[in-house]
Amino acid sequence: MEKKSCEKIDSIKARSVLGNTSSDDLKRIEEVKLLSDSDIQADKAKVFSRIRTRIPAEVLKLRSQLYFYKIAAALAFPIALAVAWTFFCCLQEKTSSQLCEISAPRGSVSKCILPDGSRVWVNTNSSISYDVATFNQKDRKIEINGEAYFEVCKNKEKPFIVSNALAHIVVTGTAFNVRSYPETKQFETVLTRGSIEFHTGQKEDMTIELKPGERAVFDAVSKNTVVDQVNAQLFSSWLNGQLVFKDATLNDIVLELQRIYNIEFLYKDKGLGDFRFRGMFSYSNNLIDALEKLKKTASIDYYIENKVVWLKKI
Fold it and tell me: Which fold has domain 107-235?
């Protein structure tokens, strides 16, 4: 039916072009025009209706997505900030804990040159450490465990500080020996040349200025500090791998031998540890050589049992 209607309209259009249209043809054309405009208007209404119903849904969806992104961004910023802060703190912790440690194994002496040019000798079974990141910035701090000898480059603007839990020394340029083993609970320093300030680690911080040839010993048990005149060369003889004793007790000698040879000493006779001794030992000697020297010069016999050296009177 629609096909015939379309063919009839086409026929009327053809006659219109040739100028042969009748009044009925013109009326038919007008009706078709009216119907076409009506259909167009109806189609437009349908399209606009669909657009109006669809746009709010799309807008709502878009708003939901934007709201989600806002929340995600709001959460992402503090999370990113927290991660960045954690990374920064970890980085700071790593950089602030870049410790350099110099140690000497048993029976040997280690030597090193610090970043400021100062020279250090570390005695057997001892160690020193310093923070690579901060050393030689505002000052030059060194932690010590055991015994070490320092030749410090002069720099008044950056004091050189040697310390542990018991006491500390402040210098600008000098040479001195420091001895502080944990088991002795003492902090001892002997000045070779220059000058140093000796500070105890107590609340009532006491400062002592030492002169060359003086020794200061702080005892953590008695809380007392003793200063006396000594032969500074005797206290630095270990730099050449030698131990020189002048009127030392057997207790003092045994402590040194234990550190060098990593073996325990015990006495068979009471009071033997108070025996006074004068002599020299070399790090290059073995344990038996050291014991034979004791036997010859101090009339002290020995025997070794279960990795323990027993000393007794002859």
Answer: Jelly Rolls (2.60.120)
